């Protein structure tokens, strides 16, 4: 089934085409482009027009361009528009306009991608569900996701992010969700906002895009929850708060964080609900309550949703856990790795440290004898003038009492390293390379290891290095 014909794309964008074509997908990257995709030559870090010839050689159905690149054959299939970004947005608007899918939009300082993936899992059990494969949540990611919407989708999940004021509302109006959700408001991107209240107002602007009779779902446990509530009341037909505090419509009454799962109790519309997610973390259980609120708002099968939710676990870099075998001959000689290296801010850092604190190391299996809870933490970016204080403040989190050693990477994390008690201080390094060289000496069988930091710190390389310590076959 074609996603876009040349005639449909011309109508959507107001452009002109040099040939008749049909596209089965939409791509902005020749490295992941599939045969039959419409290649969109965005001008970002590099000018996409420089890659049009490569895209066509790899089987692209056509290319969306604002000019004809040099060296192309005269019959090259092109969709020519005045501005490529505007053309992509027009395709996004058209993709949204023609779908009959129920659309859910998600934003938040923490947890929007994992919640999007929970929604994908749960809604996918009740119909054909479309969502971006990655965190495509910005000015090009949202229209790209909408432009990729299958014609026969039943549900769509659109993640919306921001770095500066005024970004969320236009994307929400493009997505036109039936349900819009704010997972949490926390210190993040403070360099661009004067206060946490400013961040809350920006997050709440997702409700401006709601369809008539739409539902707003928001975290009711926050100091800034009144801002979310007031904005929801202006734009939503119905509002549902979630969290652990008593007034919430969907109230999490008990959370038990196990070593490999989280089990929780929920009161939802005066009914008790028992549910689980297949990963440790109180924050996952709380956001799962928002997912169940979405299921209720869309009138779906909650029993089936609970079963599908129980099978969900996060992807790489977002709390994924795995065992790394260190000895071919000794089957119990392994460490447990918690890969949360994709991003970080104070709220998500606190949640990850709580998961580490609840993990159970194993004793008498390594050279040290005592299994340890060990954290490798990298700088949290875009926190503005309070950045060093926010880093140092991590030392006072209750979870730190159960963590044995904290290694710190980056100039901002030096503030945490200095604030830690001496017995918890691991190593501090300016960059990942320096820390990476010590891994084999610092880790031992029986340890549970958390790796977390902002993406630009590159702590994913530490995760890769730990995985390369693997010997033999990992235990199940």
TrEMBL record:
Q: What class of enzyme is it?
A: ligase
Which pathway does it operate in?
Cell wall biogenesis; peptidoglycan biosynthesis
Q: Where is the Mur ligase N-terminal catalytic domain?
A: 24-69
Show the catalytic activity: D-alanyl-D-alanine + UDP-N-acetyl-alpha-D-muramoyl-L-alanyl-gamma-D-glutamyl-meso-2,6-diaminopimelate + ATP = UDP-N-acetyl-alpha-D-muramoyl-L-alanyl-gamma-D-glutamyl-meso-2,6-diaminopimeloyl-D-alanyl-D-alanine + ADP + phosphate + H(+)
* EC number(s) per entry: 6.3.2.10
Superkingdom, natural source: Bacteria
List the Gene Ontology MF annotations in alphabetical order: ATP binding; UDP-N-acetylmuramoyl-tripeptide-D-alanyl-D-alanine ligase activity; UDP-N-acetylmuramoylalanyl-D-glutamyl-2,6-diaminopimelate-D-alanyl-D-alanine ligase activity
Which residues does the annotation say bind ATP?
108-114
Q: What name is this protein filed under? A: UDP-N-acetylmuramoyl-tripeptide--D-alanyl-D-alanine ligase
Organism, per UniProt? Roseivivax halotolerans
